[in-house]
Structure to design on (152 residues):
């Protein structure tokens, strides 16, 4: 996205221009809000008739940090084998001879080792906490803050 603020500067000192935000879920609405606080006319645009109708609907707009875990875990090998033989209905593997699948699968399985899983999960949780803090700090919103112990 390119935003040309010089072109729109003739509209007055408080108006920086207009911007469209694609998506009206939690991320889209928060992005539009942040732009509006900075003086832009921000308009979230969504394929559906209202906000939070797709991905954000199921999580009720909750920013959850504690349960952040990587998918590559020691138990993932069983799930991968079940998917390969058709026992795992949520995953379908069709291109068994695709070299990219084998490269990705090898890297994924290397990250399933216990130490790699612990390191990657800790990194993901730090990133999640950092993002939540940025949202709370940068938007000056009076959102409720709850702290839960990180899941193990």
């Amino acid at each position: 996205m390119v935003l040309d603020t010089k072109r729109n500067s003739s509209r007055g000192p408080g108006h920086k221009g207009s911007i469209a935000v694609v998506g009206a879920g939690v991320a889209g609405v928060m992005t539009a809000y942040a732009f509006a606080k900075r003086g832009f006319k921000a308009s979230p645009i969504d394929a559906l008739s209202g906000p939070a109708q797709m991905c954000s609907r199921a999580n009720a707009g909750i920013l959850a940090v504690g349960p952040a875990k990587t998918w590559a875990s020691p138990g993932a090998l069983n799930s991968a084998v079940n998917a390969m033989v058709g026992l795992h209905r949520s995953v379908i593997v069709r291109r068994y001879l695709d070299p990219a699948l084998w490269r990705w699968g090898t890297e994924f399985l290397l990250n399933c080792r216990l130490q790699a899983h612990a390191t990657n999960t800790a990194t993901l949780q730090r990133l999640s906490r950092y993002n939540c803090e940025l949202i709370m700090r940068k938007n000056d919103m009076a959102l409720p803050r709850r702290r839960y112990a990180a899941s193990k």
